[in-house]
Design brief:
single chain; 469 residues; mainly alpha; 20 helices; 0% strand; disordered C terminus
Length: 469
């Protein structure tokens, strides 16, 4: 047989293509190492202040000292929550106090170092889970997806290190729960939500999503695991009577404390500019409450003057509107990739916004929706509605957050952080309702692949039929 005259010309072309792909992988690897190095450097820099406070013998090291004192109190059989009318120094559930007990005997510096390492590991987990949920794969994605969402909310991440707050850990647990749902492991998913709720109560709101999506095994696992954390784990350190008493005191002081002066245990801070929940934002804008009750007894920012009862009804209406908007957006969506990622992001944002106390550092949770919208912008064709919408949402949300720099108190008093999350929530609802979210079929260029282990979905589920992309 005679050879084609073009056969010899095809070989170097194929080889050149392979060389080009290999070079692209090498450049991506170098970029990922750079991204990892920068994030690790940031984690080390953020860890300096709390460790320095220990080294110089500071009397007060933010919440780190509180966590250690509470853990030691549990071990000693003391009162975690005051029996009098005094405010709770420790507002977290009894299960959280029991979790702190085993590491509380460590030296002060070692205790802080352990919590810093946990926070750093949680940050890594948040990045990895966010990218996986957004793209369907753990590796091989554009390095920007692993980097820029964290940079967009880096002040909030810094606050978790400085203050010793668990916001990043809670996000890691929630994202892990969504990953487990995708991988058809609902029991593990429910257990992760329960652990998050055992640390700080508000993630328990995710159980409503489990019920709505008929994830009964996840629902049962959440209830059983949380009950074990609340009532069984503390038995290692306290009597059954003390365990029950702790739960009653905490429930009365935290879950059922809401009046004209306070939400839960922070009367001067609950309605202040520091609280960016929907409850606090509505009260500040609709009722003449102090916008900074800790430092200024005259400053108010209300646009109208309603009484407490009317404002509460307005707040409940606003909260209900978020739920109705989610239900409307998800009415045709199936819980299969990639739309499950969008729905999980909406749930994350809704939990964040409706939590009674959602201080600034809690908005580190914006990392996930930023990752999702950044990916949508990457894979959507230039000029498409999907790309324009994604870029608008990111720009508008980040723009509102930036207002905190020139107007640190006033911008937050008018809810700039809350509204930055609300913009993302509304846009993601539109993305879900229009079925815009997709994974690129060009895995080489976009670094995206469909996940393994999920049941088959129709073409519309994968690429967004009628999306106008």
């Amino acid at each position: 047989m005679s050879k084609s005259p073009h056969a010899s010309a095809q070989v170097p072309t194929v080889r050149l293509d392979r060389v080009g792909r290999s070079w692209g992988r090498l450049e991506r690897l170098r970029s990922m190492r750079l991204v990892g190095g920068i994030l690790l450097l940031l984690a080390m820099i953020f860890s300096i202040a709390p460790l320095y406070n220990v080294a110089r013998g500071a009397i007060f090291n933010k919440d780190y000292d509180l966590w250690q004192v509470v853990g030691k109190t549990v071990l000693a059989g003391g009162d975690v929550y005051p029996r009098t009318t005094n405010l709770f120094p420790f507002m977290y559930p009894p299960s959280c106090a029991a979790m702190l007990a085993p590491i509380s005997p460590l030296p002060r510096g070692a205790f802080v170092a352990v919590l810093l390492l946990i926070n750093t590991a949680a940050w890594v987990a948040c990045i990895a889970c966010s990218v996986y949920l957004a793209t369907g794969r753990w590796k091989g994605n554009p390095p920007e997806l692993y980097f820029w969402p964290s940079i967009a909310i880096v002040p909030f991440i810094h606050d978790t290190y400085l203050l010793g707050q668990p916001a990043i850990l809670l996000l890691a647990l929630m994202l892990g729960a969504f990953v487990m749902i995708r991988q058809a492991r609902p029991g593990v998913s429910g257990a992760l939500v329960a652990v998050a709720a055992g640390i700080k109560a508000f993630p328990i709101l995710a159980i409503g999503w489990f019920i709505y999506r008929r994830q009964w095994r996840a629902t049962a696992a959440t209830v059983v695991t949380l009950a074990a954390l609340m009532f069984v784990l503390p038995l290692a350190f306290r009597s059954p009577a003390r365990v029950g008493e702790d739960f009653v005191l905490w429930s009365r002081g935290m879950l059922f404390k809401y009046d004209e002066r306070t939400i839960a245990q922070r009367p001067h801070r609950a309605y202040s500019f520091k609280n960016q929940s929907i409850q606090a934002t509505v009260h500040r804008l609709a009722r003449p409450v102090l916008a900074n009750g800790e430092d200024d007894k005259t400053w108010r920012v209300n646009l109208i003057s309603l009484d407490f009862k009317t404002t509460t009804l307005l707040m409940l209406g606003a909260t209900g509107s978020l739920g109705l908007f989610y239900l409307w957006s998800s009415r045709r969506a199936r819980l299969v990739p990639p739309n499950d990622a969008v729905e999980a992001s909406m749930i994350t944002l809704m939990i964040l916004m409706v939590a009674p106390l959602s201080f600034n550092y809690s908005y580190a949770w914006l990392m996930y929706p930023f990752t999702l919208l950044a990916h949508l912008g990457f894979v959507s064709p230039a000029g498409s509605k999907a790309r324009r919408t994604a870029l608008f949402a990111i720009a508008a949300s980040v723009g509102l957050l930036i207002l905190t720099i020139p107007f640190p108190k006033h911008a937050q008093a008018y809810g700039n952080v809350f509204f930055s999350g609300l913009i993302l929530f509304v846009v993601l609802g539109r993305v879900l309702e229009r079925n815009w979210y997709r994974w690129s079929d060009d895995a080489e260029n976009a670094g995206i692949a469909k996940p393994h282990g999920m049941r088959a979905a129709t073409g519309a589920d994968w690429v967004g039929e009628g999306a106008g992309i």
